[in-house]
């Protein structure tokens, strides 16, 4: 290419690389940019701690550890409240029979007793003395018409008599089944009133009779009674035969 146009083109081609070089040397990078070709500055201050992160998910259970040693026994605690009764358990097997117990008394209460006094003076000898003044004869085991006590309950009985002696001597005997058991004798002292008494325990069977009788002839029948002096006869059951 010749002429002015060619000259201009050649000039631009020569000047272009020079300008580029000069521009490269004159342009300096911005020190505030990360690509600055400067040396690093002093380290800055540490920043503030950040907020804690959220809790992570629970991890899986590990393997079961070995059993530890048994600790010391603690003190006994307070007694708790009584709980609700549990259900009745099954009935057990019958036990062995126990030893036979002693024989006890029956539910029926045995009673037999009497207490009587004399109303007539100088009873006849060798016949039962008829004590017709009744103090107690609830079971009617004493017969005032005969002067005899009739046993209705077999067992052990207590009998006693207390006699006033006047005018003559007294010798009496307590009879059981037509046989004299005990004797009582008192010698009368003139111008005086004496006392004679006796008592005995007897075992009687049902149907046995007991009475008091002047023993011997009429010289020993000084048993006496009036409105201020008494002669009495009594008896009662101590305990019955349970067999």
UniProtKB/TrEMBL annotation:
What protein is this chain from? Adiponectin
Q: What is any Pfam family matched here?
A: C1q
Q: Which PANTHER family match?
A: ADIPONECTIN (PTHR15427:SF20), EMILIN ELASTIN MICROFIBRIL INTERFACE-LOCATED PROTEIN ELASTIN MICROFIBRIL INTERFACER (PTHR15427)
Q: SUPFAM superfamilies, alphabetically?
A: TNF-like
Give every C1q domain span: 107-243
The cellular location(s) given in this protein's UniProt record come to: Secreted
| Domain of life the protein comes from | Eukaryota
Q: Per the annotation, which location comes first and is thus the protein's main one?
A: secreted
Please state the span of the N-terminal signal peptide per the UniProt entry. 1-24
The annotated regions of Basic and acidic residues compositional bias extend over 54-70
* InterPro entries recorded: C1q_dom, Collagen, Collagen/C1q_domain, Tumour_necrosis_fac-like_dom
Q: Which GO terms describe its cellular component?
A: collagen trimer; extracellular region
Keyword annotations for this protein, in alphabetical order, are: Collagen, Hydroxylation, Secreted, Signal
| The keyword Secreted is assigned to this record | yes
Transmembrane segments annotated in the record for this chain: none
Q: What is the lineage of its organism?
A: Eukaryota, Metazoa, Chordata, Craniata, Vertebrata
Q: What are the boundaries of the region Disordered?
A: 43-95
């Amino acid at each position: 290419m010749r002429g002015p146009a060619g000259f201009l083109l050649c000039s631009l081609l020569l000047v272009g690389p020079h300008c580029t070089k000069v521009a490269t040397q004159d342009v300096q990078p911005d020190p505030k940019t990360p690509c600055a070709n400067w040396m690093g500055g002093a380290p800055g201050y540490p920043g503030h701690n950040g907020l804690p992160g959220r809790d992570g998910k629970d991890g899986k259970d590990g393997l079961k550890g070995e059993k530890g040693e048994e600790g010391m026994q603690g003190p006994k605690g307070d007694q708790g409240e009584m709980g609700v009764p549990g259900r009745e358990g099954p009935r057990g097997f019958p036990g062995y029979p126990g030893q036979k117990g002693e024989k006890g008394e029956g539910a029926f209460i045995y009673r037999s007793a009497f207490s009587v006094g004399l109303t007539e003076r100088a009873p006849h000898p060798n016949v039962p003395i008829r004590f017709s003044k009744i103090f107690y004869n609830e079971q009617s085991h004493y017969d005032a018409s005969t002067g005899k006590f009739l046993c209705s309950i077999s067992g052990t009985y207590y009998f006693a008599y207390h006699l006033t002696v006047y005018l003559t001597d007294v010798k009496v005997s307590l009879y059981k089944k037509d046989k004299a058991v005990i004797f009582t004798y008192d010698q009368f002292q003139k111008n005086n009133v004496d006392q004679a008494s006796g008592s005995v325990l007897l075992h009687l069977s049902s149907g046995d009779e007991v009475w008091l009788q002047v023993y011997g002839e009429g010289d020993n029948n000084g048993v006496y009674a009036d409105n201020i002096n008494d002669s009495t006869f009594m008896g009662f059951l101590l305990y019955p035969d349970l067999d």
